[in-house]
Structure formats: C-alpha cells, structure tokens
Amino acid sequence: MHAGIQCLRAIMTHRGAVRTRSETLGMNRNATAALVLLVASAATVGIWQIGWNGPTYARVLSARPVTVREPLYADVVEAVPATALDGGEHATVWQVVYRQDGQLRRTRSPTEPGDQIQVGEQHRVIGYDVVWRWRDRMGVVRLGHRPGERLPVEDGAVVASRRHRPLSG
Prior knowledge:
By secondary structure, this protein is an alpha+beta fold. Among the domains are: 2-50, no CATH class; 71-121. The protein contains 2 helices and 7 strands, in the order H-H-E-E-E-E-E-E-E. The protein has helices spanning 2-12, 21-50, and strands at residues 57-86, 89-100, 103-109, 116-134, 137-143, 150-154, 157-158. Strands 1, 2, 3, 4, 5, 6 and 7 form a 7-stranded antiparallel β-sheet that branches. Strand 2 and strand 3 form a beta hairpin. Helix 1 (2-12) packs antiparallel against helix 2. The protein starts with a helix and ends in an 11-residue tail after the last strand. The model is unreliable at 163-169 (pLDDT under 50).
C-alpha cells in the first residue's frame, strides 16, 4: 500500500517534465482519481477482512415455549380416617387437610397420605423452539432461555449459547 502512494506521488509531482497549465491540471485529475480508487479498494478489502461482509446476527422469527407436565404437591397438615358409603358398603377414606399457597384446603383420599399429597399438575417451561433467519437461510434451534430479537452467528452457523470463558490469571 505504501508503494502505491509513493507511485501516485511520483505521478503527481514528476520533476523534469515540462508541462503546460492544461496538462498539469489533467495530470492532477488522473492522480486524484487513482488515489480515490486506491483508497476505496483498500477500504473494501479492510472491511471484508474485519468481517463486515454481512449481518452477524440472525433475526428471530418466532419462539414457542416447550413445556412438560409435572405433578403439583402440597404439604399435608392433618390426615384423619373416616368412614364413607361406597355402593352400600362402608369404606375407609382419609380426610386430608393440606397447605397450598398459604391457605389450608381439604380433600379426601382413598389411601393414607404421606407428608405430601398430589393436588394437581403444573406446566413447566423447559426451553424454547426458535425459528430464525440469516441471509437466505432459515432454521430452528432449541434454547434453554427466552431469546431476544436476534441470535449471534459465527462462521455461518447460529450460536445457540455463548459461554463466557473464565479469565486465565
């Protein structure tokens, strides 16, 4: 690059050549155009080497939560056996008092409960199926967290998670 600038300088200030005023202006125009072209080319190559050759993030098109169903348990406060009629016969059931969300609630159980009783089910989010688009490619990746509006791309591949490397001391 340094040699190119020296060459242009020599063209612009060539000593020993006798020129008229119109020839001098023409030579300066040519040298200026060559200099602009050289600078533009160097900038293009530099930008390409730095990595500005396209977006480095994929756009998130959608994110759907992935859930699992899990049993919901509550702590048993008290369990008392009781008798109930079942088809004309006496059966033993358990009157159970349990604590859920800070409130005491009651239910019946056909078997003696332990320290906890199942009171329902809950849905827990375990991840997100994310549809992304980068340049002319689309894909799906599962993430363990809710994504933002974009995902990082490295070496042409969407990076599902970036781990911070520990600093070496």
